[in-house]
Structure formats: structure tokens, C-alpha cells
Amino acid sequence: MRQWKGDTGGGTLGQRLLLVCFRLVDLRLGYAVMAIVVPFYMLFARQGYLSVYHYFRHRHGHSAWDAFRRTYRNHYLFGQVILDRFAIYAGKSDAFEVEIVGNEHYERLAGGDKGFIIAGSHVGNFEIGGYLLHSYQKKINALIYAGETETVKRNRAAVMSGNNINLIPVREDMSHLFSVNSALQNGEIVSMPCDRKLGSTKSVECNFLGARATFPIGAFALAVSFGVEVLAVFCMKISSRKYRVTVSPLEEVNPLRTKAKKDLVNNLAQSYVRRLEETVRQYPEQWFNFYEFWKQA
User: Where are the beta strands (DSSP E) in 133-261?
Assistant: First the structure.
């Protein structure tokens, strides 16, 4: 059974009210309201609260009080990144500044003939990168959760399409794989989160922050099959109006090597997990997986 929800909360009416609100008032007012709302959310969304609390207690070794304080901060930052998305829906994309580290890796692959894969995660605000950055050389095909409200779907599609990004909803019948395969065959980019089993049936166990955790290998299996490279991309919130995007290549994939395909896939997965761990250690409060992520003893 899936332990997480991929949809944005608030319901259709609440989301529409947010859009109207951000067209009229400053985003900072939303942040102030969020600071008051978060304790109630933590109280009633107990499963998510406990999973994040355990993350700070067991994976980072904080005291009970410090883990609670950081859990509040985690929920507050998550609320901010959601509000940032709706502010962009409301036409305020120019309110944010973006710094890109390692963009030369993206430009090198985007200027080539072959496609490649962008491996994202539920850390920071990966989705907002698609709103603030344009893809000029190649089309980006982004895998997304299909269960969002119509408000989010409509506004997200409108912003993404203007940035040369095609959205591919993940379907239970796995039909989205045809679109993914076609994109890579055409030399385009495929973007997907690699820290949750979003449409991927196979996984690998990795040591992550001192304990065993399960990661999907769909993106890495595709990379090996098509002989394309993988870039780990993280979009982190640095301040109320600034994001930092870091781009780093994973181990190069060469299908002509004598190494077995399974080993190549696992090496890519391990490389991604190392990049993810480095990022999470640097920004521990921007871990936004609200369920028990690690395997229990």
C-alpha cells in the first residue's frame, strides 16, 4: 500500500481562493498566515508529523525538543514552497530569483543529439524549477502524479507549456512508459522524481543517512537501456524570494561495457542516493517525504 499522497492539499475551493489572494496581496502575508496554520496541520496530520519527527530524531540524532522544533520548521517551509507555486500561478514568477550551480552539465547535454534524464526528488521545490527556468534546446517531458485537482493541473500545464515542458501523468496501466520511451528515442529530456515509486515497479535498497531505504530504479534502468546520461537536479529554497538549483551528473552510462546491466543500474541508483544524501545533509529541513521512508528494524 502506498504510504504517501501526491496531491496538493486545500481542495479546489481553497486553491482557487489562494490564486485570487495572491493576485491582490503580497506573498509575505501568506507566509505569516502559514506560520499560524502549521501547528494545527501538525496536530491533525499526525502520521506526517511523526514521520518527519522520527527523521530528525533517528537520521540526524537531534534531541526530542530540537527534533520537534525542526519538524515545525520543516512543515513551515513546505507550506512556503506550496504558496510559492500558487504565487507563480497567479502571475508572480518575477518575484523569485534563481541561482544555477553546475548549469554547464545541462547545457552540454541539451546541446547534443541524444536525450537524457533529469533525476529529481521531493526535497526543496523541484517543481518550481519548471516554472522559473526555460528549456530552449530540447523539450522536457516531466512525469507527474495524475491525482491532482483540476485547479493545479490547469495552472501547472499553462506555466509548463510556456517553458517547453510537456507533462506526462503517471497511469496505473503504465501507458506513460510509451511517452517516455518515445521522448528518449527522439533525443528529448525526461524528468522524474527518483525518491518515490511513482510508476516504477522495481526498486533497490540503499544505505541512506545511516539506515536502509528503498529507491525506485525506473529512471536508471531507462538510462542504461537507451545509453543516456542522468543529471541529479535539486531546487532548494535559500530565502523567501531565492532558489538555488544544483545540477550534477551521475556516473556515465555506456551500454557497451562488459559490466552487467543490473550493476550499471545499481551504480546509477547509488550515485543518485549519494547526491541526495549530500543535499539533505546540507538542507535537512527541506526533506518533504511525509511518511516513514526508512525500513523498520
Answer: 140-145, 165-170, 189-193, 203-208, 211-216, 230-239, 242-249
CB neighbourhood size of 99 (10 A): 12
- 270 and 198, same structural domain? yes
Q: Of the candidates 62, 89, 116, which is a domain's last residue?
A: 89
Q: Give CA angle at 104 (237, 133), nearest 5°.
A: 45
pLDDT tens-digit series, residues 24-75: 667 888 889 889 989 988 888 888 899 999 999 999 999 999 999 999 999 9
- Residue 182 CB neighbour total at 10 angstroms: 11
- Number of domains comprising the chain: 2
Residue 34 cell numbers, joined: 502559514
CA atoms of 218 and 199, how far apart (whole Å):
8
The domain boundary residue, chosen from 55, 89, 123: 89
Whether residue 5 is contained in a domain is answered as no
CA distances from 223 to 153, 159, 261, 266 (A): 28, 28, 10, 11
